[in-house]
Amino acid sequence: MIIVVSGLPRSGTSMMMKMLEATGIDLLTDHIREPDEDNLRGYYEDERVKQLHKDNSWIHEAENKAIKVISYQLRYLPKEHKYRIIFMQRSIKEVLASQQKMMQRRNEPQDDIPDYLMSNIFRKHLDEIEQWLKDQSNIKTIYINYNETLDDPKKTAKKISDFLEIDLNIEKMIQIVDPRLYRQRK
After folding, report:
1. What is the CATH number of domain 2-172?
2. For residue 11, what pLDDT band results from cuts at 50, 70 and 90?
3. DSSP character for 113?
4. Which residues of 47-57 are buried (b: 16+ CB within 10 A; e: fewer)?
5. What region does 124 belong to: left with phi over 0, alpha with psi -120 to 50, or beta?
6. What is the pLDDT of residues 168-182, one digit of tens each?
């Protein structure tokens, strides 16, 4: 089994990876992207995920581990593996605000696409990927709300433990959740 943490960018995927790491689950990361002001505790990424649509031959390295795969790359997971996907959900307004703030800090050019159009693009993608996930016999998915996790991390940790069918250390998972890191509220 491969544990996949997914969702839109800026939806709480790094927090979930950190929660899994705290329980002793091995993570497949490359440590290239270092913590910064936008993700003070790190990104927990493997750069190869960005090219999953071109090369997914390495995904076997994630067996019995957790890996972060952005929702746009989920369709490229090889079908010969079994996956448990923890799909993070967050208000699209907050996702957009967080992305904009990150781009400003990095002095990157802002998108020319208005927020209302980007929201529609994200919603359409999320609807499509949810349906696609339902149709995959090798994938089980749980949806975890970022805001609810901040409000009740114990409930989320218990849900994850039950979903993965692993006796996770709930207290260690709870300790990772830090509401002070919730900065883009909408």
Report:
1. 3.40.50.300
2. confident
3. S
4. ebbeebeeebe
5. alpha
6. 999 999 999 976 555
